[in-house]
Structures are given as structure tokens and as C-alpha cells.
Amino acid sequence: MPTPPKRRPDSARRANRIIQQRTLLLLALLGVGSFVLLFFQLYKLQIRQHDELQNLAVRQQTLRTTVEASRGMIYDRNSDILAISSTAENVCVSPLDIARNEQDQELIANGLGEILGVEPAYILDEMKNTASQYEVIKSKVEQETADKVRAFISENKIKGVFLRPTSKRYYPYSSLAAHVIGFVNANGGAYGLEAVYDEALTGQSGMVVSARDRDGRPLLYDYEQYFDAENGDSLVTTLDKTVQYYLEKGLEELESRYGTGVGATGIVIDVNTGGVLAMASLPTYDLNAPAAIFNQEMLAAGMSDEELSAAAKDLQNVQWRNKAINDTFQPGSTFKIITLAMALEEGKVKLSDTFSCSGYLMVEGAKINCSKRTGHGQQDLITAFANSCNPAFMNIGMRLGNTTFYNYMKAFGLTGKSGIDTTGEASGFVNKEIEYSTLALACYSFGQNFNVTPLSLINAQAACVNGGYLRKPYIVSEVLDQEGNVKYRHDTTPLRQVISEDTSKTVRDIMEYEVESGTGKNGKVVGYRIGGKTGTADQIDGSVTVSFTCCAPADDPQIMMLLTLSNASDKTGTYRSGGNMAAPVASSVMAEILPYLGIEPTYSADELVGADKTVPNVVGLSLDAATAKLKAEGFSCRGIGAGETVTDQTPLGGAIVPNNAEILLYLGAEKSTELCIVPSVVGDSAATANRKLTDAGLIMSVSGASGGSSASVRAISQSEEAGKEVPAGTVVRVQFSDGSVRD
User: Fold this and answer.
1) pLDDT tens by residue, 615-644
2) What is the mean pLDDT of residues 4-14?
3) Which tens digits make up the pLDDT trace of 590-599?
4) What DSSP assignment string belongs to 425-484?
5) Residue 231 and residue 341 share a domain
6) In this predicted model, what pLDDT tens digit does every residue of 250-264 receive, in sequence order?
7) Residue 247 is assigned to a structural domain of this protein
8) 126 located within any domain
9) In this predicted structure, which of 178-187, 231-240, 656-665 has the lowest mean pLDDT?
10) CB contact set of 416 (below 8 Å; sequence gap of 6+)
11) What is the mean pLDDT of residues 416-438?
12) Judgement on whether residues 225 and 79 belong to the same structural domain of the protein
């Protein structure tokens, strides 16, 4: 066989080199590829996922507990606390620690459930997440309850149950000014000032960061960091808790006497600043338990527990609603104050003008009645206002004309929102017809066919009596930081002057005459000059809203008050009108507010008889000396016994009683300790009521419209309940009203 040719050595070496080169290239490519993959993985871990992984590591190695900042306080204008955050604690469990330490979960659930009022099944369910170290079982528990939890933990040597400090909102006066203050929920401020100023009140939360080992156990306190919470700012309001109390008491009286459960509103405002001294709405609620139905007799009368539970959400929304700013109504005759101011300012009327009233007026084919269907006849401007005569004011409105009338409504702030610093303010509703319709103008002139909020109405009325200056109503006067430094102060500069000082003075004079001699006579307050206006308005739904606006002192107004009652009822037989229903209540509220505010009474000669005075102490004096001292103060007296020296007296020295009261002087005779029974005087004339109370050994104090000999003036309320046993000489305040009022 032939021998195969031998491969040349250089060819073999070349092949080996190629193989080696290819191998090196492949290795290089694999190396570069691996490096690229590793690079991108490192980039992903170190750069793109750095924050996520770092946070995960921190969460595994630390426990972070939020420390809530203390919410700022809310004060009234006298620095009385209306809202405060008190110390509370959250009860928490660590399912991880409970599982690791093999704790008795049934024992924990049952024990905590009993102390906290929480279902054990809920607690057991929270303990299922064994990866968690922090689950809140109940938040914001009181100190007493927290101490019971600590005792339970200690007695049973439980691991995995702990407490964390927090704060709880507390309202010292419960329902007082509820609609103004508002309340907080899990998300912060929910209503009122708590919501509007939530950011300022909340502050900045702090944090406790505790280090953990790899098994999740806490390390020494040296590894714990505490970041202080920054407490919230505090609010100083224009509210006065005492004025607020008197207003709310009056609204409750108005609603209970003439209401049908729909509700009532009241506002007291400082006419010279726009500051709201008091604002109230019925039904109301308890700020410390806002979800509970507070006025059940108004909202849930006759409901079973099941029905109440089903309707709870709707009823809550009703009771949380601040009708003074959230709702609108047709104001009726109280609006005549504003129509009067417009016409006087424009020179369309003067005091000598006369108006004829036949009981109605025909406008564009529509018959519009007066409150007095038989008519008022001829009357001048002041008398027309005092009579609340609709035809007279329709005439005045038409003298002004549509454009001027509408422009004044805008100038008085009645076509929009006032901008007050609370939640849910509604805007007035003005029909377009006012710009061209004579019928609309006629109705507007006496407060019908358009809607306003009670707040915007009283704010415009305040401008009519304070010199003509429209101001922005407000509730918060100052915001204070933690050290008490002022961070914000409200600017009380007027928005604009709508009418002149002279016009304003004339309006005040006419309003005072209305209370002295017109439909507002039941709004009198002995010793004070009151200006006012009654209102009785038909609403779109067919109901009647009664109201009364008043300011005092009439010659130099400091405050103004508006009371309104929705869907007024004649269930007591009282004629439905602002003068019969709202004015007497306003009188009793003003009789308490004005002396409290330091506004001194100025009695007329007639009013001095029966004006309140302090009884001198005459014990130890002779009968003659005691008699002279008492008579010098206007009191009469009667001696009991045969001694020469006064050994006791009724009422005691220092008591405040009407100065026409008879003081009993005991001359050695033993003073009777027998209690007197209060008689019922409601429905009686002033003379009859006085006789009944005097015969019972009591003293009558008069408020309201008691003057004159009119058979229509009768007692409508008494401060002491009939049948109650009281000490001799007790003063019983009796409110009188003239039932002949028709607006």
C-alpha cells in the first residue's frame, strides 16, 4: 500500500493557534458577559433598589413608633378652654413576640377584650399576622383603662402586649358651641374650626426608633432614638362661653315652646368688629361623642332601637349641620331693616313721608297681603316700620327700582358667601327676576322670594346699625404658637361702607321705636334701649319661619342678635309670628347677656319701679333705722315680732331683687324655715301674677312686655317651676308677652 503523505508541521501549529484563539475569544466573551450580568445585577441592587432594600433592612432591624403631636387648644375670648388634647394611650400587640414566646392568645384576647370593651374575636384575628410587631387593638384609651391593661400584663407576665403614648381630643363643655368648634376623626379635623384650622392645630408628629436583633427582639435603650413631636398651634376665638350658654338656653326654650323638631338658630355678633360672640343651632350634638344622637326627642322621637340604628347616619348629618351658615331661608320682615337703609341712603324716603295701607297691594295682577288684613290706614315711615306694613315697604322698594335694589343687596353681601372661617357656608340665592320684575321687587322689599343664610342676614343688619360698615364675620381672632406668640391676628378693617353714619343713626332710631311701640314690643328689656325687627316668613315648603333681630344699646350698638325658628307651630294657641314667639325669648336672652357684658342699664322713671337692686343688710339696726335705709333704696318693709332690733330679714342682705319688693324684718320673732310652694302664673296678667307670688311669700321680677293695661299682655314663662318648694323671698322671674302682635 502506498504510504500517506505526512502533514506539514507549520499547518498543525497554525490549526492549534486558531483553536487557542477561538478558545480565548470564547472565554473572553463569557467573562465579559458574566461581568456585564454581574454589573447590571449590582447596579440593580446598589442603585435602583438601594432605597427599597435599605428600608427593608431598617424595617427588619428597627421598630418605629409614631408619637402624636399634641393638638393645639381652642380658647374663647376670655381664655377659657373650649378644646384640649389630653394624654391617652394606644393599646398594641406584637403578634411576632406573642407567637415567639408562645403566649396564651385566648387569655390575651379575653383579658384585653373585657378591659377595653373589644370583641375577643377581633383581637385574636389581629394576632394572626405573626410577621407583624405592631397592631393597634384600641386607640386613645383613658389613663384609668391604660393602668388596668398594665396590671393585666404584669399579673399574667405577658410578652407582646404594650402601650404607646398618644393624645385624645377633649371638649370640656360637651355640646356648647358644637357647630362652631367641630370635632376630629381618624383623619384629623372633620367639621368647624377643627377642620378649617386643622393644619395649624395638628402640629408635627414625632417618632421613637427602637433597634432589634435578627430575631426581632428589642436591644438596649442605648440603641433607641427619640424624635420630639412639635405640638400644634392654638386658636383664640371671638366666642364667649357665657354668651354662648345664654343663647343656647334661649334656643332650647324657643324650640320646646313653639318648635316641631325642625330646629332653631341663633347668632350674637359684635357689630363693631364682625366677631361672632355666639352661634348655635338645634338640633345639636356632644363634641365628646359626635356619633351619638344627642337630641333624640327632636330627631328620633318614637323610633325603636332598630330604627334608630338604621337611621343613625342620616340623623348624624342632621345634628352636625350648622343651620346658621349651612342653610338658607326667606328672611321675611327682618329684611325691612335693609330695605329701609337703602331707601334712606338714596333719599327715596324721609321721616315725614306717609303711606296708605288697605290690607293688600296689587302688583302685576298679584294680590299681596299685609299682616293686618284690614289695613293700617295712613301712617308715617316710622309707624309703617313699627307696624311691619308690607304695602308700605313694597311702595318703598318700587321707589328704589330694580337695579338700585339689587346693587345694594350685593353691597350688603347678600348675594354670595360672607367668607367666615368655618365649614359649609352656603351662598344666598337671588332670583334673576329681581333685575327686571316689579313683582319680584315688591316681594323682595319685605323679605320674600329669595334666600339668605342667617349669618349673611345679621351681618348685613349689623352694617345698618354700626355706622354703615360691612365687615367680614370671623371666629378666630388669633393663632398662637407653643410659646404663646401671636402668629396671626384677624384684621377687622371694614370691607366697605354701604350707608352713611347719618342713615345708620336714623335706622337705629326707627328700630328702637319698633321695640317700644311696634311689633317688637315683646323684645323689650327693662333698663336697656333695644332696637329690633320681627319677622314671619312663608317658606317654599309651606312652613313658617319666625325670627327676631335686635341690637343694644340702640343709641350705640355693641351687639346684635338674630333668633330664627323653622316650621313654627301654633300648638300652644299662640299666633305664629316673630313678635309673639321669637321676640319674648330674645328679651330673656338679652336680659342675661347685656349685664354680663358690662353694658350698664339706664332706667327710665317708670322702669325704676321694679328695677333690680341689691338688698341692704339691716340686721342689728333698729326698726326705724332699718326702715329708713330700705326706703332710701326704694324698698318697702314689714316688721314681724315685738322687738326693737332687727334680728333677721327676708330676703337676706346682698340678694338682688326688684326694688319694689317688700322686705320682711324679724324683730325678735323666729324666722320661719317652712318652704313656699311656687304657684303657676303662666297665662296671668302682671297684676294677678304679682299677687299670687306675693301671697306665696315670693318676689316677682318682670321681663318682656308687661307695661300698659292691655288684656293681651300675659305671662308666658316663669323661672321657677310651678309646684316647686323654695325658700321664702325667692325671686321668680316672669316673662310677659303681648299676644296681639301680628308679625
Assistant:
1) 999 999 999 999 999 999 889 898 999 999
2) 63
3) 999 999 999 9
4) ----B--GGGGT-HHHHHHHHTT-SSBB-HHHHHHHHHHHHTTSEE---BSEEEEE-TT-
5) no
6) 999 999 999 999 999
7) no
8) yes
9) 656-665
10) 410, 427, 428
11) 93
12) yes
Q: Which domain holds residue 139?
A: 63-237
3-state secondary structure (DSSP) of residue 319: helix
Q: Is 673 a domain residue?
A: yes
If asked whether residues 509 and 615 sit together in one domain, one would say no
Q: Are 240 and 77 in contact (CB under 8 A)?
A: yes
What's 695's domain CATH number?
3.30.10.20
pLDDT tops 80 at residue 55: no
pTM flag (> 0.85) = no
CA 267 remoteness from chain centre: 9
Angle, helices 390-400 vs 438-445, to 10°: value is 130
447 & 346 share domain: yes
The pLDDT tens digits for 387-419 are: 999 999 999 999 999 999 999 999 999 999 999
Amino acid at 263: G
pLDDT(709) > 70: no
Among 221, 237, 253, identify where a domain stops. 237
Q: 710 near 740, Cβ under 8 Å?
A: yes
Residues 354 and 487 in one domain: yes
Number of structural domains in the chain: 3
Looking at the structure, tell me whether residues 632 and 506 fall in a common domain: no
Q: What is the CATH number of the domain that holds 334?
A: 3.40.710.10
Whole-angstrom CA distances from 403 to 57, 411, 436, 441 are 72, 12, 8, 10
C-alpha distances in Å from residue 263, one per residue of 349, 433, 550, 582? 37, 30, 20, 13
Task: Look up the CATH number of the domain holding residue 96.
Answer: 3.90.1310.10
Q: Is the pLDDT of residue 221 over 50?
A: no
**Same-domain status, 368 and 514:** yes
Instruction: Return all residues near 581 (Cβ < 8 A) that are at least 6 apart.
Output: 254, 257, 258, 546, 565, 568, 574
pLDDT digits (tens, 9 = 90+) for 162-214: 998 888 899 999 999 999 999 999 889 999 999 999 999 998 776 666 665 55
Strand order in the sheet with 731-738: 699-704, 731-738, 713-718
35 within domain boundaries: no
Write out the three cell numbers for 429.
340665592
Q: Enter the C-alpha cell of residue 651.
A: 330676703
The maximal CA–CA distance of the chain, rounded, in angstroms, is: 177
Q: Output the average pLDDT for the chain.
A: 89
What letter does residue 740 receive in the DSSP assignment? T
Q: What is the DSSP letter of 674?
A: P
Q: What distance in Å separates the CA atoms of residue 71 and residue 82, rounded to the nearest whole number? A: 13
Q: End of a domain among 485, 502, 518? A: 518
Q: Mark whether 402 and 509 lie in a shared domain.
A: yes
Mean pLDDT of 337-343: 98
